[in-house]
Amino acid sequence: MEQVVIIRYGEIFLKGDNRAYFENLLLKNIRNTLSPLPCRLERIQGRLILNGFAEEDRPEILRRLQRVFGIHSISEGVRFPSDLERMKEISPDFVYGKTFRFTVNRADKRFPKPSMEVARELGGAVLAQRPDLKVDLHHPDCTVFLDIREDGNTYLYSRTLDCQRGMPYGCSGKGLLLLSGGIDSPVAGFSMARRGMKVEAVHFHSFPYTSVQAREKVLELGRILKDYCGGEMKVYVVSFTQIQQAIHKHCRDSFMITIMRRFMMRIANRLARECGAQAILTGESLGQVASQTPESIASTDSVSELPVFRPLIAEDKQDIVAVAKRIGTFETSILPYEDCCTVFLPKNPVIHPKLHQVEQEEAKLDVEALTAQALASLEVETL
Ligand code: ATP
Ligand code: MG
After folding, report:
1. In the chain, which ranges are E strands?
2. Residue % of the chain over a pLDDT of 70
3. Which pick of 138, 151, 265, 325 has the fewest CB atoms within 10 Å?
4. Ligand 1 close to Cβ of residue 288 (< 6 A)
5. Confidence band (pLDDT; 50, 70, 90) for 201?
């Protein structure tokens, strides 16, 4: 008898001719994340079987698999040569709760008994050992699955863990994420990575108005995201201080945030072009703050050549927080270090900026020189 983990993939099934491509990418991503832990990965019709791992590695293997995009669910189980007596010996250990049933799939038509009969005999064997249990075919606490395969092996399992679903990381191009130290942007990065998009990030700081800790916090968020992003995360760190000072000095206070966001977008576009990203990603959510109205978003987008993806645009804060907690970014996001957006914050930001007014205000600045200067401060952190 061999310990196995059965890995099921969901959506990539639907991809017709591209299926082999998606499958291979998923396989590569799984191999990559499990590379420090010795094990073997086999493909059987529409599933992957992991075996040959050390018992003490099992919790870490399950933890890592639960972060791989494209995996639908996993089950811990065993594999052994198909034989009814062996099934009877092994299956009681897989029953939990008070009521149970067996579900048998007999792909191997050479197996001498039909599935219903196998299920009945196994149920009888369990009850003989555990008279306190009951069979419940409709709402059991526990379903024990037996898959009698054509290759002469039976797979047996009862516990299934839900995984991330989504698409294999790397199958949907690359996006450059505007990463602040807040709650939203790491969740936005996670959401796009879950659709298969490679993610790199850019962070703007206003040192010395923002602290070294604020920057360290953002890098820590990058490190957490990295686990979902193929084990690697690049963060482009750009100084925003001079831009903010210039806006503060020359432009009407109420346009501060609007103009800042246009600078962020221009710089992000330049970096994206250099790193081969096809989209800019942000954590904006409609109506959350003054800069997240349709007019503000239009004013930001009008300086972007690349499409801007805002996966959280229609999400409620509470739901975003729930995801942040689940993926492990929340605790870091709420550390109390200031973001560059909170420096020079105007008392009354324009909520519905008119594009011609924004452009008028911005015309007071040497946009190109300020952009170039900020880009000259670029530091690249590979996490
Ligand atoms: P978050 O929780 O992601 O910080 P927020 O609700 O605080 O979002 P804003 O501060 O208006 O909202 O920022 C909106 C988006 O702009 C962020 O989600 C992020 O994508 C981007 N952004 C804000 N500040 C920065 C920064 N310092 N560096 C990079 N991107 C930023
Ligand atoms: Mg913020």
Report:
1. 2-9, 40-44, 47-51, 71-81, 99-106, 134-135, 142-148, 153-162, 174-178, 198-205, 234-239, 279-281, 308-309, 379-382
2. 99
3. 138
4. yes
5. very high
